[in-house]
Amino acid sequence: MTHSEALDFIRPGIISGSFTWADLGAGSGVFTLALAELLGPDAYIYAIDQSKKVLEIPSKPGIAAILPQQADFTRTIELPLLDGILMANALHYVLKKEPFLNRIVKHLKPQGHLLLIEYDRSIPNPWVPYPLTFSGFEKLCAKTNLINPKEINRRPSRYGQGEMYAALATRG
Q1: Residue 17 scores a pLDDT above 90
Q2: Which of 28, 46, 64, 112 could form a disulfide with 108 if both were Cys (CB 3.0 to 4.6 A apart)?
Q3: What is the SS3 string spanning 72-97?
Q4: What pLDDT shows up at residue 18?
């Protein structure tokens, strides 16, 4: 996905006045950089990934400060209270999603947001081992402290296997 496409894909999920975010499973930073641009220079993003690629995400003038951490986001991580958490193509690596979400939601401020990007598929493959459809995400939110899940964007997968969705939910 290009930077411009990533910007357009997540733009509807960015809440004005939110300045402290984490990107769990940041990878090479495609969505991290889009988020940084949308949040602006007064914001901070904790970019977390177990790959060393996360350490190479460039920080630029005029965008949010990116604070890379090489770590496994599925384990306990130290974070401040956050206005938002971005998970772009990362939750499908978590087998036990309910306890994981219950743990990370505690990092969100009251009314903080989870911005999720996933493939809308139910059949696993080597790249999406534990898929999560949007309807599955809605059901998962009902079991966690996340409310008002809504789909904010959708596009065909560039891999030709269905679609990707962007969804937003709020800490209850």
Answers
A1: no
A2: 112
A3: CCCCCCCCCCEEEEEEECCHHHCCCH
A4: 81
CA distance 152 to 44: 23
For residue 58, what is the DSSP state?
A: P
Distance, CA of 114 to CA of 26 (rounded, Å): 14
CA 76/CA 103 separation, integer angstroms: 8
SS3 125: strand
If one counts every other C-beta atom within 10 angstroms of the C-beta of residue 29, the result is: 25
What is the enclosing helix (H) or strand (E) of 22? strand 20-24
Secondary element (H or E) of residue 167: strand 163-171
